[in-house]
Amino acid sequence: MIELMVSLTIGLIILAAIGAIFLASRQSFRTQDVLSRMQENARFAFELIDRDIRMTGFSGYASCTASQCNDVTNTATTWWNHKLLTQPLAGYEASLPSDMTASARIAGDSFSVIRADKFNEYIVASHNTAASPPVITLTNAHSISAGQLVIISNASNTSIFQASAVNQSSKTITHADGGSSPGNCTAELGTVPANCSSTGSVITYPANSSVFEFSANTYYIGSNPAGEPSLYRESYSGTAQELVEGVEDMQISYGVDTSATADQNIDGYVAANAVTDWSKVLGIRISLLMVSRSEELGVSGQQTYTFNGSSYTSSDTKLRKVFTTTIAIRNRL
Description:
The chain is of the alpha+beta class. 17% of the residues lie in helices and 35% in strands. This is Type IV pilus assembly protein PilW.
């Protein structure tokens, strides 16, 4: 009997040890799995942001002057109109652009990037400014739709206009004046009505000029339909797109060239509300606070972490990790 009890005791000790090892291994696996997912989500988020920031202000093959690229549409002032490519980057400290109403936003900084989309470039076959309305014919099929903003550019000029109609089979884009819907105020591409402020001479873009889709995006942190914090991107059309789940906060600082000689070197990083000249911003430093999902409660104990220069202690059992990257604005270096 004594031998049996000793054997049972030893067996129970061994089972308890095996159980403890199993539970520890399971918890370690859960933690590593969540960390891997958070790291992958952060990498994907940075890739998407990187593509926009590096091309900030890209306008094609010539600089975009105020008369060619400002006041494009006869609509009310928005965060993208009346700035366009003359101020292609803007940041907002713990807020959004004043005229943007993104109901999903919950926290963090936001920023806007405006550029020509190099990944959607088309070649001009002809540009008939004598037609009413003017017509641009492309050499290749395109995905541009009516109402979309478009950039046309060559080595001498760049203009922005709003496509009033398109014909995919004939590969044409028509450009109505500001009296139409959608309207245009770009003088270089046709007659400008009295309600528009732009002035200038009509420019006929020759064959082999390029047409780009216009890109204007604002990035911010919002809450998705499941109640999880996510990185969102909203385009100038007002369409908000959830990019990456599990992004709880975003803090941004801007690398500014403050030297009197403008030597194109970053002299320091400041918050958005400390930037006095956005054309002096040469790079952006972005920190994302990634968090595990609500269904992954218990993956971590009470956690202390540092974010944006301050120390925090979590009140839940979610896992958090900070990822930071610095992205240069290629067109300004």
